[in-house]
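Why this split exists: single-chain examples teach little about how molecules sit against one another. For that reason, every record in the complexes split bundles all components of an assembly together and asks for one structure covering all of them. Below is a record exactly as it appears in the raw files.
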Amino acid sequence: MEVTPNPHCGARTRAGDSCGNKAGFRTDHVGFGQCYLHGGATETGKKHAKAIRDDAFARILEMTDPALARIRALIDYAESEAVALSAARDILDRAGLGAKHVHEHTGPDGGPIPLDVRAGDLLDRARKLRSPAKAKPATRKKASATGKKASPPARGKAPAPKVDKAAGNIKPA
Ligand SMILES: [Zn+2]
């Protein structure tokens, strides 16, 4: 079975050219395989589309380690400081530690919160950012203590920052 990613259905039409419908058009596998007019909705068409999609994802996954290694090499060895800095920032952003995510946290008593930043914690934070609905609701001690409504920090600049479970109060960076 040929496994070639194609943004279009690509099936041969009676006119002799290839179908220009979007891949998987009007099927349950939009983006992969043939359109509904060219067998995309049949069991064979579904299997074919799944093979294309699985293959594409596998190849993307294969590239993540080399991509990270390349960025690491730029950080360590790039002749241009600007390139090295850009690569370093890219990694920090992807880890959720970019400048726009940096907040000052204080505990309920105003004291510091010990932060234990490990790879597992970063992964947990990344998952929470992807599904904010599942994240625990933020607690705003100051607002409840004074009875005033807390205005979101940095209004108009950026969306309100996400609050992790360790955060008591959040101040803009
Ligand atoms: Zn088609």
